[in-house]
User: Fold this.
Amino acid sequence: MRCQCQSHRKLRLNRKRKTNDRCPICCFNRPCCICDAIPRIELNTKICLVVHARELRRTSNTGRLALRALVNSEMRVRGQTRETLDLKDLLIPQYRTLLFYPTDDAVELDKELVAQDQKPIQLIVPDGTWRQASKVHYRHHELKDVKRVMISTPNISKFHLRAQHRREGMATLQAIAHALGIIEGDLVKAQLMKLYHAKLEQTLIGRGLSSLAKSLA
Ligand SMILES: [Zn+2]
Assistant:
């Protein structure tokens, strides 16, 4: 049972107010919202983000920013009901579908791979913790024949929105920026990385690390 004393009630009310005041896309409080800076990018490549419902509640999530920026993209949410999400309708012949996940047999996503087929690419991107992302790879049997691709460029940025447990670990928006840089070109990558840096900068400011945020600029 929740404590009804005045100070605890006040604390709960403040927490609720803070949450209500948060932008659902960038997750910052309204005065710090960065959504006006989100570009609108139309591409032949389609990004499909497969995200766990729990991940959507995390303020460090960057997948939603990518979706907002990329017109030709969609999101599928796992873990909302007891039933397993079925992704087989994604496998349509108009696209060459690839799953962005670093298994042992994953191939490097590079320009050579892209040039092998003229069809536009649909890149399925699991979003969330490594554990959640790995479930998209091994639980969704409908995707078993989809080629796994990875980028082995190490992530050399000094500051992260979350602790990364692998050398090449990147935030989802960063990973999508790198992938689209290879598939679509450097301009798209630069636009998305600018958005990623805006998110990182505002996050550092929120953590009281303004001087670090300035050093990113
Ligand atoms: Zn916002």
